[in-house]
Amino acid sequence: MQALLAEGYTQCQQSEGFSEYIGPFYQKEVDGRLVRALPIRACHLNPEGVVHGGVLLAFADFVIYRAIGDVLGHQIRFATINLNSQFLAAVKPGELLLGEGRIVRETRSVIFADGQLYTAVRPVMTASGIWKLIGRY
């Protein structure tokens, strides 16, 4: 974790609840984009010795959720109502999992967004979904 801080990463805010169990998550601005990071630990692995798919899905949801908040403001409330994913490659112990998200389209009540997860050497997952703006109709 100290190595990430030395590379300019900071710990992400709003990582309480479930996110606290799989995090901590980190972020860093790279070429004008916010990149989120999750250092892979033994607790993230499945019985086959690679990162569990549930960890990848949870991190993808977090990455896209935070990217939406970066644009709309983190005081706005919204919730995932659909998340589609495509697993592309395994993540191995000790790797740094990185992710980026973006808004594709916004309506009065929902946000369409997507994102990708990757390591330093390969793409790992793509995801897209819909997030409901809470309190808007």
Feature tags:
137 residues; alpha+beta; seven-stranded antiparallel β-sheet; 3 helices; 7 strands; 22% helix
Overall description:
This protein has 137 residues and is of the alpha+beta class. It is 22% helix and 40% strand. The protein has three helices and seven strands. A hairpin with a 3-residue loop joins β5 and β6. The model has no long low-confidence stretch (mean pLDDT 91).
Structural class: alpha+beta
Q: Can you tell me the overall shape? A: globular
* N- and C-termini, Cα separation: 42 Å
| Side-by-side strand order of the widest sheet | 1-2-3-5-6-7-4
Task: Please give the largest β-sheet.
Answer: 7 strands, antiparallel
The stretches of 5 or more residues where confidence is low (pLDDT under 50) are: none
Give a quick rundown of the structure:
By secondary structure, this protein is an alpha+beta fold. It is built from three helices and seven strands; from the N terminus they run αβαββαββββ.
Blueprint (SSEs and pairs):
Layout: H1 2-6, E1 10-11, H2 18-22, E2 26-30, E3 33-39, H3 53-72, E4 78-87, E5 96-106, E6 110-118, E7 123-133
Antiparallel strand pairs: 1-2, 2-3, 3-5, 4-7, 5-6, 6-7
